[in-house]
Amino acid sequence: MSLPPNTQKRGNTYFFRRKIPVDLISRYPRKVMLVSLGTSDYETAKTRAAEMTAKTNREFAELRGVKSDGWKPPENFYLSREELENAEGWQREYATNRDHHKAVDRALREARKTTDKLLAASGLPNTEQLALARVVAESSAGSAATPPKADKSVPLRRQVTRLDASPEAWNLRHAVPSWIRRNSPKPASVGHANRAIDLFEQACGVVRLRELTKAHGAKFVAFLLEPGAHKFKAKTAGNYAALITAILNVAVKDDVIERNPLDLSFDKSRGAETREPWTEGDLKIIFGHVLFSNAIDAVPEWNGIKPVDARALLLMLLHTGARIGEIAQLRRRDFVVREGVTAIRITAEAGTVKTKESERVVPLADHLLADPWFGSWLAKVMDGTRPEDAALASTAGRKRGASDAASKWFKAFRETVGLPAGRLNGTHKFRHWIRSALAAKDVGIETADAITGHAAQGSSGRVSYTSVSLPTMLAALNRLTYPRVSGV
């Protein structure tokens, strides 16, 4: 990933670095501005760097029309005392270990030249090579560079063994390519696996697979569950532990190690909070909003989402219990008529789905189709005359995906109408509402699973052989009592 203009990354932190123009050098105490952007997130750093660039452009333009007598750098821009101390600390570290940094830079340049050849030899599909490229680059750079001089105030660069090392020297990262080949994970899952390894190395260091012991597992579990140390809950910690276990199991299959020595089991429900379905009052607030009236054009475009798309989104979430990403990424061709039933297709072809059970066809309830506004909207989607492919056009083309765009819209909507805030009060409550409503009408679990795309629990017979027809699902949805929608 290329860095934004005037940006550097040292360790995990991004810095704004810009040379002073030659004609203005006399106006500044240094030839280079260096300011910590205070973030390790690429997108945040990109935004802050752009703001700093615009600010310095204005400053330079102003200074070229100002006399130098008595002028000092403006306090509202130049480095604060804390930032100055951080910048000088970084400069001292860089000067002390200049040879190391130069060696790392040289190694990275060489790694880029040979990465394509290494990836081609790996036999991985193109969609899976990005994760391996990262490991290749880090491995090549880490092995070529001389470690910096010991300095307790500066974290040492983590050393990663080269990928072409013998099995005796393998650590967790060496098993990732084989894990990818065997399981064909999505890019997001590969990222989660690398994050899990990062956490393991924070807890235990870089340990060779053949040197792992049960004590390493206990140390990693303690690290994951350390109170207040992480932003994630026990369930997410369990997901990271499961990824480490899966990677080690691949190493066993590849005969790199005889067995998996780590016991990473723990109670994943610790600290978990329960998400409740929407109450009758909540639904009255949502569907009584002006968004569902003839004055829909007065609704702001939070996060750039058109009110028309937002209204259709919430109506489908209520009537299908689908995940917000499943609805936000629907294409016009995903609205179909099968067995005489109007339905939506939720498929990985349209975007991200959570599990294989998530790919399904869900009928649209008669209550929804009877809504005049939605009926008109649906007719325009299915008439084949619109040039855009996305059903909810304003959610499309987003760098972080349709699901993220729709979720941010709902967060703004929720705040405006006065619904409770927090992670447990998002659109997932529509899924809980429809599951509760189906259960209250004595709808079978198999039918409810088929509608919401939950993985079936229990016997293999249910998983392998149970198939629920569209008419059966539609009949179940039509038994529900839906809240009144304003303007209908």
Written overview of the protein:
Helices cover 47% and strands 6% of the residues. It has 18 helices and 6 strands. The protein starts with 6 loop residues before the first strand and ends in a 10-residue tail after the last helix. The protein has helices spanning 42-63, 81-96, 98-122, 129-144, 176-183, 187-204, 214-224, 234-253, 280-287, 307-320, 324-328, 366-369, 372-382, 402-417, 428-440, 445-452, 460-465, 470-478, and strands spanning 7-10, 13-19, 32-36, 335-338, 341-346, 360-363. The protein is globular, with a radius of gyration of 28 Å. The longest helix has 25 residues, at 98-122. It is mainly α and 488 residues long. α3 (98-122) runs antiparallel to α4. The protein has a 3-stranded antiparallel sheet with strand order 1-2-3, with helices on both faces. A 3-stranded antiparallel sheet has the order 4-5-6.
Number of strands: 6
Number of helices: 18
Overall residue-averaged pLDDT value: 78
Q: Which descriptor suits the 3D outline?
A: globular
The spatial strand order of the largest sheet comes to 1-2-3
User: Over the alpha carbons, how many angstroms does the gyration radius reach?
Assistant: 28 Å
- Given helix and strand content, the structural type is mainly alpha
Largest sheet: 3 strands, antiparallel
End-to-end gap: 49 Å
Low-confidence parts:
67-86, 124-161, 458-465
Estimated helix fraction: 40-55%
- Helix-strand sequence: EEEHHHHHHHHHHHEEEHHHHHHH
